[in-house]
Amino acid sequence: ADSYPGLTRDSRFSQLTPEHVAYFKQLLGQDSAVIDGINADAAADIEPFNEDWMHKYKGQCRLVLKPGSTEEVSKILRYCNENMLAVVPQGGNTGLVGGSIPVFDEIVISMGRMNTIHSFDEMSGSLVLDAGCILEVADQHVAERGYIFPLDLGAKGSCHVGGNVSTNAGGLRLLRYGSLHGSVLGIEAVLPDGTIMNDMCTLRKNNTGYDLKQLFIGAEGTLGIITKLVVQCAQRSPAVNVALFGIESYEKAQKAFREAKLQLSEILSAFELMDGTSQRIVHQVRGGTKPLENDYPFYCLIETSGSNSEHDYEKLEKFLEDVMSNEVIADGVVAQDATQIKTLWSWREGITECIGHWGGTYKYDVSIPLSDMYLIVHDVKARLSEAGLLGETDDHPVVDVLGYGHMGDSNLHLNIAIRRYDKEVEKVLEPYVYEWIEKRQGSISAEHGLGLAKKNYIGYSRNETMIGLMKQIKTLYDPNGIMNPYKYI
Ligand code: FAD
Ligand code: 2HG
Ligand code: ZN
């Protein structure tokens, strides 16, 4: 686990006492809503809240609160604000930048009990639900009514919609349904002083003054706690097709993307890129039959979603014939049923889990103009090899360097699979990677957020004026700084 060099506990924050815990116990009533590590040894129960999905960040929290209503969240925050107790909101704890984990002894406010789906308007598609609902459960609810949640990602079985909105997650179909900045219609949030901000508009249009809810989308728990949401869901397409193909070069992958947009236009719902290394690793870790016979340096996964299966399938087949005969792609396979669709997607969605197999990963979630996007993988790999850090044997900390991601959104996930976290490797990677991105006017955080991992690097993607304005907003909403401290900015 990371230690946090350069970070010291903010002495303005109070140390938790049995009196504080007694207040929360009385407020939340039931025993299971408080995990108390102050009066008793609760280390084992608290551990999952103190550690992230990658086992990279470790907190020292000794109190977890699980509110059951907005009013309880409000009372918790008001009390924390008055008593200078720092807090960390936590959803499904699947975040990849250490944002959901305390740094020191901050109180974790876990949202899992607030998981009611309140209503769904089958005419408009607007869904009203609690922040602690699991993404997959919300999607299933609207699927039964012919709709689709406008976000999908590999962690759907455990991430919360509140966490998704707080990180402004992008996921696998942003290309089709756009960012949460467009599909979140309303938010209820509790500010650090306990004020409940009710902006639960269920309509698509509402140009009355500043759109304050937008600030909470991507705020990573630094301004307040999101308690409820209104989400615009889209009509679910009855016809879904998925194809995976092998490609000889990154240039050809770009051509394939251009052609897919041209030829599949309105039915294209995902265009994902995977490099050969990522697919080799998934195969090595999980086994199974490879979708294509031969190995390729690049693979793309295309999904179409439309209303007429025959028409869509025909369009996709014609597209495949075209790109194959023009040698844009070398080989391809189209899923024949729902099981095969799932299997093809698993070669893409399974990467994050498989690359952690040797011990960990350094992750860079970057947005770069498409023409240069994959170049960063070659450059980083060469740098690590030259430094003697990459190799097949255990004395090398780095196993391999790979790239994959949401090609349709110019978003690459550069990952360095490692045997152990290693300062030497970090020195070779940073600030090199961030400088590389800055030179190309890219973004150092395309969709995962800043959290603790990137807070020191925001200057590579935002100028002083913008950072200054962000700090003013933070101070306005959270003058005592109790909301998710030591992170973001
Ligand atoms: P957490 O990890 O619990 O929290 C994330 C941040 O939000 C923290 O800063 C936390 O303090 C804050 N927060 C959580 N809930 C609230 C709330 N109610 N109010 C205020 N603040 C809150 N991300 C993508 O963008 N695209 C992907 O395709 C994608 N795929 C993933 C695949 C895997 C296998 C994994 C493990 C992660 C993936 N992620 C992806 C990252 C992660 O799943 C998303 O960031 C997700 O949105 C986090 O949701 P969560 O509920 O787990 O939030
Ligand atoms: C994805 O697109 C996620 O699969 C995770 O955003 C990316 O693990 C990663 O780097
Ligand atoms: Zn992603």
Please describe the topology of this protein:
Layout: H1 18-28, E1 34-36, H2 43-50, E2 63-65, H3 70-82, E3 87-90, E4 107-110, E5 117-120, E6 126-130, H4 135-143, E7 147-148, H5 161-167, H6 174-177, H7 180-183, E8 184-190, E9 196-199, H8 213-216, E10 225-232, E11 234-235, E12 239-247, H9 250-264, E13 268-275, H10 276-286, E14 298-306, H11 309-325, E15 331-334, H12 338-349, H13 351-354, E16 360-367, H14 375-386, E17 398-406, E18 411-418, H15 423-429, H16 432-439, H17 464-477
Parallel strand pairs: 2-4, 3-4
Antiparallel strand pairs: 1-2, 5-6, 6-10, 7-11, 8-9, 8-10, 12-14, 12-15, 13-14, 13-17, 16-18, 17-18
Helix pairs in contact: 9-11
The chain binds flavin-adenine dinucleotide, (2R)-2-hydroxypentanedioic acid (2HG) and zinc ion.
(2R)-2-hydroxypentanedioic acid (2HG) binds at residues 154, 352, 363, 365, 405, 413, 415.
Q: Can you characterise this structure?
A:
Helix 9 packs antiparallel against helix 11. The chain has helices at 18-28, 43-50, 70-82, 135-143, 161-167, 174-177, 180-183, 213-216, 250-264, 276-286, 309-325, 338-349, 351-354, 375-386, 423-429, 432-439, 464-477, and strands at 34-36, 63-65, 87-90, 107-110, 117-120, 126-130, 147-148, 184-190, 196-199, 225-232, 234-235, 239-247, 268-275, 298-306, 331-334, 360-367, 398-406, 411-418. The strands form four sheets. It has a seven-stranded antiparallel β-sheet with strand order 15-12-14-13-17-18-16, with helices on both faces. The chain has a five-stranded antiparallel β-sheet with strand order 5-6-10-8-9. Strands 1-2-4-3 form a four-stranded mixed β-sheet, with helices on both faces. With 489 residues, it is an alpha+beta fold. The structure holds flavin-adenine dinucleotide, (2R)-2-hydroxypentanedioic acid and zinc ion.
